[in-house]
Every structure is written in C-alpha cells, then in structure tokens.
Amino acid sequence: MHILENLQTEVTKQCDVLVCGGGFAGISAALSAARAGKKVILLEKTYMLGGLATAGLVTIYLPLCDGEGRQVSFGIAEELLRLSCSMGSEARYPANWLDSDDPSKRTRADRRFEVQFNAQLFAILAEQLLQKENVEILYGFYAVGTHKAGDKIDAVIVENKTGRQAIGVKSVVDATGDCDIAHIAEAPTDTFKQGNVLAAWYYSVGAEGYKLHCLGACDTPDEEKKPGRVGQYLVNRRFTGLDGVELSEQMQLSHASIMNDLKKNRAEDPTMMPCTIATIPQIRMTRKIVGLYEMTLEDDKKYIEDSIGMVCNWKKRGPVYEVPFRALYSPKVKNLICAGRCICSTESMWDVMRVIPCCAVTGQAAGLAAAMTDDFNTLDVTCLQAELQRNGVVLHERELG
Ligand SMILES: Cc1cc2nc3c(=O)[nH]c(=O)nc-3n(C[C@H](O)[C@H](O)[C@H](O)COP(=O)(O)OP(=O)(O)OC[C@H]3O[C@@H](n4cnc5c(N)ncnc54)[C@H](O)[C@@H]3O)c2cc1C
C-alpha cells in the first residue's frame, strides 16, 4: 500500500552549520564550527551525546599515537580524550602520555595513548562543553529529509515530539555514522558489503566491582578465516545496520547474548547484575560517502597534499595515515560534508577509520570547513589547513620528527 503525502513543512530554525548526529564526529564538528564563530545547531535523535561511544557503551578511546612513541592525532581528538578522563578513567589510563609533557621522562612507546572512559560522565561533560561554545543542541530530533535548491541543501527536515519541521542551513555536516543525510540528499554512497557481526557490550556490577564485558568478535569476515578466530561469534549472521526491522532484531539478539553471558558469569559470582546495556545498536560499518579520494591501507606514511590531520592504526603499531580533505565530501551536493565512520575508504581501511580518534579528527576538519564555505569544491584547502594548524592539528607525518 502507498500513502501519498502533501505536506507543508514549516522552517522553524535557521543556522550557518547544521551538524546531524551527536557522536564523537558530531561533537568535534560542532565544537570546531562554533569556535569559528558560526551559529551551529547539533541534532541528535537520542537524548545524550556520544553516539556509539556512550549510548553504545564503546568506551575505549583508541590511540592517538603510532605505538612507537609518536603522537599523530592532535587538536580536538586530544582535547576530547583528555575531557573523557578529566574526572577519572575506568581503565587503560596511560600515565606516560597524560601525566608528563616531557617525552624524555617517560617511554611513550611502552603504552599507547588511549583510555577507557565513563560513558555517562563523558556525555554530560561534552554537553557542557558544547553549551559553553554556544552550540544549540536539539535532542530527540531525527533528520529524515532534505530540501535542495539546485545542488545545495537549503533545509534539513526533522521529526520530533512536536511533529515535522525544517531547519534552514548554509552548510551541513553528516555525522550520523550511517551517511543518512548524504543518502537522503542523493549524494553517491556505498555500503559495507561484508556485513557486521553481532556485538553485545554491557556493564555489570558484582564481586569484581564495575566491569565492561565486550561480547562479540571485533573483526571482519576476512579475519574470520585466521586461526584461533572461529567460535568467537555470538550468532551465525551478519548485519547491514541499514534496515529498521533488522536493527530491531539485532538489538534483541544482543540482549539475549547478554542474558546468556550473565547466567554463565553468575555460576562464579551469584551477585553479578547488569548495570548498563546499550540503548542504540552496536553496529560498526554501514554506509559511507563516495568522495573524491578513497583511503586505503597502502596510504601508510604517504604524503597527502590536502591532509586535514593524521590517524594511526589501532590494530598495529607503526602505520600513520594523513587524511585527505577529498575523502570527506562528494562534489554532487556542494554544501554537505561527512565526518566520522562514514568517510570514503576501502572496506579494510574503513575498519581503521571508524574508531573514535579518527571520528574526532575528521569531525574537527568537517566542522571547520562547513564554517568556512557553503561549497566544498571551491574551498581553498590551504586556508582550511592553516586554520586547523592554528587550532593545534598537525597535518603531515614529516612534521612529527
Ligand atoms: C561493538 C563495537 C565496538 C567498538 N569498539 C571500539 C573501540 O574499542 N574503540 C574505538 O575507538 N571505537 C570502537 N568502535 C567504533 C566507534 O565506537 C564508532 O565507530 C565511533 O564512535 C563512531 O562515531 P561517529 O560519531 O562517527 O558515529 P556514531 O557514534 O554512530 O554517532 C552518530 C550519532 O548520530 C545520531 N544519528 C544517527 N542518525 C541520525 C539522524 N538521522 N538524525 C539525528 N541523529 C542521528 C545517532 O543517534 C548517534 O548519536 C566500536 C564500535 C562497535 C559497534
């Protein structure tokens, strides 16, 4: 059955930069755009900031360093890591990075620059930081459509408790993680072909205190074939993350896995109780923008002229990747830029680029670029780079020494 709608949608708000999605990418983008002096609105369909990293309980802020003693990600990526543990960390606290500014005093190759933080604390701290920078946060706002004038978006259509309305924009950052806005606006996108495994991360309290349980293997089918990997999967099924019914089933399977695990653990510790379960689906890779540059694992230590910052490989020590500005947008929709786990990369590189520090790096650049222009094709990248450098970002591997 088809229902035809003829809706008149009222434009209720206007802004320079609209950031859709309040995960690490969206937080970074909103901060960056607001600090550039623009009127910024951040939409988040749930009622907390942090996305997968908080509501999804993925609380491990993976490294800012290359594992060989060199920090590679700076700027807002470092600021948010420090914020995440500013009122205490849960684990992985790297004193060699956080308690000394003098590299000669500590061996920074010993432990990577990463931390396990508390989701609830971070969500509130990030909210307060954005409020301080005058970002208007709109919780419970789901971006469901775009209105275009030529090849630019002039309004994003949202739904919330009040109903359907629109927000007028100069430029838009797609930080939905799933490239929702680019998809809706008919920019070219691609999906994760291998599909995601089921994850069921949760926290418990019991005899051992407060504890994170990371259920479900963190890999892709290519790695599944490696010896020792078999048997770590919770269910024999892969998930696209792009189908409403499938996501609902995924959530219920995660809950069942948590219950099984809890029962198993209770044989040892009858006092154990789950204290936090994820309130959004724990899905890694779904949809990405088809940009002007596709990042690959072979980009390790390659000089990228339009680099907007660097990231490491959380899976191994050594690699350093400069992130091209061209990987963040498609020329098809001129005032839309992507950040976070939906930027342009190959499937294997996607697994590197989807993690928290990379989302913060791309978020900072996307937010700043959106503050500088409403046409990313014509932006002078050297101006963007100079401004990023002024804000603490290091662009090229050769500048690390
Ligand atoms: C099981 C699992 C384990 C992981 N382990 C780690 C790890 O140990 N360390 C690490 O660094 N990374 C890890 N990751 C990856 C990492 O957590 C995420 O990729 C990263 O946090 C993504 O950030 P993001 O801002 O791009 O997207 P998200 O965190 O997905 O944020 C997107 C936000 O946008 C909102 N949103 C989506 N659509 C709309 C819409 N249409 N309108 C309004 N709002 C919308 C969502 O509610 C969400 O808050 C893991 C991921 C998973 C699933």
What molecules are bound to this protein?
Answer: flavin-adenine dinucleotide
The CATH level-2 architecture of the largest domain is identified as 3-Layer(bba) Sandwich
- Calculate the mean pLDDT score and round it: 94
**Relative strand content:** 15-25%
- Give the overall shape, derived from the CA principal axes: globular
Radius of gyration (CA) equals 21 Å
Element-level helix/strand string: EHEEHHEHEEEEHEEEHHEEEEEHHH
Q: Given the helix and strand composition, which structural class is it?
A: alpha/beta
Distance between the termini: 63 Å
Assembly level = single chain
Low-pLDDT runs of 5+ residues are none
Helix content: 25-40%
Question: Would you kindly provide a written description of the structure presented here, covering whatever features stand out?
Answer:
This protein is an alpha/beta fold and 401 residues long. The mean pLDDT is 94. The longest helix has 23 residues. 26% of the residues lie in helices and 22% in strands. β10 and β11 form a beta hairpin. It has 2 domains: 296 residues, FAD/NAD(P)-binding domain; 76 residues, no CATH class. It is built from 10 helices and 16 strands. Strands 1, 2, 5, 6, 7, 8 and 16 form a 7-stranded mixed beta sheet that branches. A 3-stranded antiparallel beta sheet has the order 11-10-12, with helices on one face. A two-stranded antiparallel ribbon has the order 3-4. The structure holds flavin-adenine dinucleotide. The site of flavin-adenine dinucleotide has 39 residues, from α1, β2, β3, β6 and α9.
